Amino acid sequence: MVAFAQSQDGQPAHPAARAAMKACQPDRQALCKDEQPGGGRILACLKAHEDKLSPDCKAALATLPAKGQAPQNQ
């Protein structure tokens, strides 16, 4: 499972997480609008609806590091 670690401004700290949140915004609004942010609930909701996600959202989620893994240096 992937988590969106947040920076002090409340946005995801990892660049890939920020990109995923942007790419998945329409999917989140359509599929997970009633989920409260925090604790990985939105990500879990998106994963639960993986078969309905847009190609952009699926691709963005695939770039996220797994929970507990350090981001890869690029």
TrEMBL record:
One GO CC annotation: membrane
Any matching Pfam family: Cys_rich_FGFR
InterPro entries in UniProt: Cys-rich_GLG1_repeat
Comp. bias (Polar residues): 1-10
Location of region: Disordered: 1-21
Protein name as it appears in the record: Cysteine rich repeat protein
Organism: Nitrospirillum viridazoti CBAmc
Native organism taxonomy: Bacteria, Pseudomonadati, Pseudomonadota, Alphaproteobacteria, Rhodospirillales
